[in-house]
């Protein structure tokens, strides 16, 4: 065989290996979840929580930064929402390259960012959207002006698959300062198909989480109360839920899976700082 022929054959084999390898990667790729969230430098919440929780669901996180915060495990002291062009550029680069199986929303921080998300979702028709309405940090600090909650309810909820507020957030969104979970759901369900209102903000011995559906059905999930307070529990839950939906799990089952996973991360939580506990979202050998 001539040298040129041998080179051609070797090149052909190399291309074949590349093609086979690429096909194998496509076949075994994990579902991709686009995360639009803020960055928490303490690592307890925000995009790091999203990434860890999605890794635990066997999904690939594609993190798009919406805001930068100054916070620790105690509270947030400042934040800056990124320019919409930067957020759009990040998201569009990911959408053009990766097959998005679900979208998870965290901190947006401004009405303009709500509109930016709507523009992004217009490129992803039919993709499940989990909206975690991050309005306050675990320590109570505000993460957006009051009109952000209104914009979420009126603009984002209609294009979302499910929202996952805790009861204080649900009260803000429903504009019912003393409302019960049922009263908040009645006010919010005309805007969204599914609503998971999480408990744990009282002193009851059990935590009651309730999934409300626009068709009138309701599902209750109860778990044992754990001691202490936690930084990033809402991010963990919403990301895990987005991951379960990306994997194709039915919504009610996905909610149960995400709640069970989140409870385990809180049970195994650690206290790396001077404030709240941080959920342990990955096994010790991966964390």
Structure explained in plain terms:
The protein contains 9 helices and 9 strands. The chain is an alpha/beta fold and 287 residues long. It has one domain (32-268): Ribokinase (UDP-N-acetylmuramoyl-L-alanine:D-glutamate ligase), CATH 3.40.1190.20. It is globular and about 45 Å long. The model is unreliable at 1-25 (pLDDT under 50).
Write the layout of secondary structure elements.
Blueprint: H1 3-28, E1 32-39, H2 46-56, E2 60-71, E3 76-81, H3 84-97, E4 100-105, H4 111-121, E5 129-131, H5 146-156, E6 162-163, H6 167-174, H7 181-188, E7 194-197, E8 206-213, E9 218-224, H8 233-246, H9 251-267
Parallel strand pairs: 1-2, 1-4, 4-5, 5-6
Antiparallel strand pairs: 2-3, 7-8, 8-9
Count of beta strands:
9
End-to-end Cα distance, whole Å, is: 54 Å
Compute the average pLDDT. Answer: 88
Radius of gyration, whole Å: 21 Å
CATH topology: UDP-N-acetylmuramoyl-L-alanine:D-glutamate ligase
CATH class: Alpha Beta
Helix content: 40-55%
Q: Number of DSSP helices?
A: 9
Uncertain segments of ≥5 residues (pLDDT<50)?
A: 1-25
- Give the domain tally: 1
Structural class: alpha/beta
The CATH superfamily is identified as Ribokinase
Q: Choose one word for the global shape.
A: globular
In short:
This is hydroxymethylpyrimidine kinase. The protein has 287 residues and is of the alpha/beta class.
